[in-house]
Amino acid sequence: MSKYESRFAGFGGQGIVLAGVILAKAASLQEGKNAVQTQLYGPDSRGGSARCEVVISEEPIHYPKVAKANLLVLMSQEAADVYYFKTKASSLIIYDSGLVQLGTLKEDARHYPIEATRIAESLGNKMAANMVMLGAVSALTGLISLPSLLKTIEKSVPPQAVNLNLNAAKEGYRHLADREGLH
Amino acid sequence: MKLNGRQFLQGNEAVAEAALAAGCRFFAGYPITPASEISEVMASRMPQEEGVFLQMEDELASISAVFGASWAGTKAMTATSGPGFSLMQEGIGMLVMTETPCVIVDVQRSGPSSGQATRVAQGDLMQAKWGSHGDYEIIVIYPNSVQELYDKTIEAFNLSEKYRTPVILLSDEIIAHMRENVVIPQSAKLIERKNPKEEDKKNFLPWKADSDGISPMAKFGDGFKLMVENNTHDERGRTNQTDAALHTMLIERLTNKIISHKDDIIKTESLFLDDCDLVVVSCGCVSRAVLEAINIARNNGIKSGYFRLITIWPFPDEQLAAIAARTNNILVAEMNTGKLIREVKRVVDPYGVKVSHLAKIGGNYHNVEEILEAIEKVVK
User: Has this prediction a pTM greater than 0.90?
Assistant: First the structure.
C-alpha cells in the first residue's frame, strides 16, 4: 500500500482528534502498518475548529502532515468550507449529512453522506458520532478492519463509554456496508 | 507501567518514558506549551517508579531542583519551551561549571518572548549553545521522529553521565505532538557516572580529573568531603578568583572533555551523497519534509543529497567539511531567520561551496513543494 492520507475536520468537542488517533493506532498496532498522526494544535478547543491528520503507509513515512487528502471526513459546515477542495483526485469524502451541506459536488470524488451525529444520538450520546465515522471509514477503505477498529476503541475510551463507542462504530460500519453491498 | 515492544506514542510521551527507562527518578518542571505533556506523563509515572515529580513555581526553581537532585545521586530531568529555557540559562551555566549531569528538554516554539505559543519553530539552535555566559561547551541533540526522541533521550542521559555535563535535548512542536510507531526495547544500555573509590575517601579531591578529563562524582551523604562551587575552583573545590592559570586550566578541562570526545558524541545522518549536485542540510521536523522533497527530486532526475544534524553541538564541522569537498551547492532549510546557516557557512565557505537558504518563520511548517522549488532553483 502506498501512502494514504486522511483528514478529519469538525469542531472542538466532537472527538475529531480521538478519531484520528484511533485510526492511526489501529493501523499501526493492529494492522502493522506505519502511521503518523498530527493535529491542528492551538488555543481553540471546545467549539473552535478541530482538525486531525493521519498518514498510513507500508513504507517509512517522512513528511508527517497532509497536503491533499485521499480521505476526508467532515463533521461541520466550516470544515467543509475550508477542506472540501483540498483532496486528491478520486478521493473519498464522508460527511455528516445532518451537519454539512455540500454545494456542487466534485466529479472526481466519491461522496458518502451519513447522519453520524443522529445515529450516535439514537444510540445514547451524540458524542459517539466520531466512532460512527470510524465505522464508515473501516467499511469503505482497506485501512483498518472492523475487528482492528473495535479492539483499538476498547483500549482508547473510558471503561463506562466502551459499549456506546463500540456500538457506534459497528453502526457506522453497517450503514455503509449495507449501502455499498459490502457484506 | 513500563512500556515494551511496539507502541503508538506522542513525541513528548516517548521522551518521558525514555527518561524513566534511562533511570531518571527526579523530574522538576513548570508546565509550558508545547512541552506540558512531558510533565503530565512524569506526574503520573514517577510515583509508579518510586521517583519524585515536582511542579516548581517557575523554571529558575526547576533547574535548581534538578541540580540538587543530581548531586543527591539521582538522574534528573526538566522539560520546557523557549520562554522557560531562557529563564534556565543561568542555571545551565552553573550545571556546566559544577559538571552536574542532567537532561534539559527544550521543545521549541515560535519566539522571541511568548511569541506564538502553539506554533513550531527552530529558534533555539544558538541559544542551546550560547545561552549562558562565559566560555563553555555543551552537548545538544535534536531528534526528528518519535522513535528517535525515545532513543536519543536515553543517549542524552548516557552522555550526561559519561561526561558529567548537562545535555540539552531539543525537540519542536511538530515532533513533540506527533504520534507515531515506536519500538521500545526490553532494556536499554545505560551509562552511569563514575563514583569515587572508597579508599580515596580520606584525601578525596572532588575536582581532580582522571586522564580523560572527568573527575569521579561523589554525592552528598556518602561521607566524601564535598564542596560544590560555581566560582572558579581548585581541585578541593575552594574558590580562587584571581589565579589566571587556575581559571584557564579549569575552563580548558571543561571544554576539552567535550571537544576531545567529539567522535563519540557527534551523530549525523547522510543519504544519497555519492552522486549529488546539491546537498540539503536540515535538522528536526524540517528534515522530514526535506527527505520527502529529496525523494521526489531524485525521481525527477535531480541528484540531491541529504544531510541531517542529529547532534547540533558540538557542531559536526568535520562531517560537513567532507560534504563540502564533494558538492558545489548546499541548501539549508530551517525554521528561523538564519541560525544553522551561519554555522554551515563558517564550515563550508573555505571550500567555495555556494550556500542557499530556505528560512521560514510564522509557525507554519515547511511544505514539500516549497522545498522542492528551492532545490530546483539551486540546480537550475
Answer: yes
Percent of chain B with pLDDT over 70: 100
Torsion of CA B116, B118, B124, B128, to 10 degrees: 130
ipTM for the whole complex: 0.94
State residue A1's pLDDT score: 67
**A-chain residues near B181 (CB < 8 A):** 28, 34-35
Residues B76-115: pLDDT tens digits?
999 999 999 999 999 999 999 999 999 999 999 999 999 9
Which residue in B181, B295, B308, B371 has the most chain A C-beta atoms within 10 A of its own C-beta, making it the best mutation to test that interface? B181
Residue whose C-alpha is closest to residue B172's, from B190, B156, B149, B152: B149
Alpha-carbon distance B152 to nearest alpha carbon in chain A (angstroms): 18
Separation CA B69–CA B78 (nearest Å) = 11
Kindly state the cell numbers that stand for A80.
467543509
| Closest CA relative to residue B201, chosen from B180, B179, B175, B219 | B219
Which residue bears the cell 522533497? B293
pLDDT given at position B2:
85
The answer to whether residue B231 neighbours chain A at the CB level (below 8 Å) is no
Q: How far does A62 lie from chain B, in Å, by closest CA?
A: 5
Instruction: Give residue-wise pLDDT tens across range B206-218.
Output: 999 999 999 999 9
